[in-house]
Amino acid sequence: MNVLQTIKGILVSELLVDIPAERMQPDDSLRDVYGLDSLGYVELRVCIEQTFGITIDDDDFSPEHFATLGGIQALVEHLQKDEEMVS
Questions:
Q1: pLDDT digit string (tens) for 13-65?
Q2: 46 to 43, 85, 87: CA distances (angstroms)
């Protein structure tokens, strides 16, 4: 599963972002480019947790990780590795 493509799909289908997935870039700002507001960030968090079967702790639900597509991608990949190590 391609993490970045899946996140793009969530933004388009679940959060109804108007920008086509093929035009989205890893360094795009979720707030400035896609217009996410506080509720949008919470919805994105829930969708990502459900889609990838991971839990995003409150410490990880931060501007550092949720500022850009690439930040979320890195967080998801990190949490997936942690899950694999525990399993």
A1: 999 999 999 999 999 999 999 999 999 999 999 999 999 999 999 999 999 99
A2: 5, 23, 22
Rounded to whole angstroms, how far apart are CA atoms 58 and 63?
Answer: 11
The H-or-E segment that residue 41 falls in is helix 38-52
pTM: 0.92
Per-residue tokens: 1: 């599963």
Phi, psi angles (nearest 5°) of residue 45: -60, -50
Tell me how many helices (H) and strands (E) the chain has: 4, 0
Q: Does domain 3-86 sit in CATH 1.10.1200.10?
A: yes
Domain residue spans of the chain = 3-86
Q: Are 8 and 69 in contact (CB under 8 A)?
A: yes
